[in-house]
């Protein structure tokens, strides 16, 4: 187990959750033609504000324009 600079615990469970979250966001972006906002955007698919996936895209280093 490793503690990062921001005092968050990083271990197998954290990495698994981040990988799963990344897969979900990438799938939603692919389904929404890489749009985050709007009625057909990824945020709407999750039922969350646009700022949430924007923040997670940045934190998880997702390249939203190169989704398969």
Radius of gyration: 13 Å
Structural class: mainly alpha
Side-by-side strand order of the widest sheet: 1-2
Number of domains: 1
What count of helical segments does DSSP give?
3
Question: Which range does the strand content fall in?
Answer: 5-15%
Order of helices and strands: EEHHH
Residue windows where pLDDT falls under 50 for at least 5 positions? none
| Biggest sheet layout | 2 strands, antiparallel
Mean pLDDT: 85
Into which percent range does the helicity of residues fall?
40-55%
Number of strands: 2
- The best one-word shape is elongated
Distance between the termini: 33 Å
Can you walk through the features of this model?
This protein is mainly alpha-helical. It has one domain. Helices cover 50% and strands 6% of the residues. The protein is built from 3 helices and 2 strands, in the order E-E-H-H-H. The protein has a two-stranded antiparallel ribbon. Strand 1 (2-3) and strand 2 (9-10) form a beta hairpin. The radius of gyration is 13 Å and the shape is elongated. The N and C termini lie far apart (33 Å).
Give me some keywords for this one.
68 residues; mainly alpha; 50% helix; 6% strand; elongated
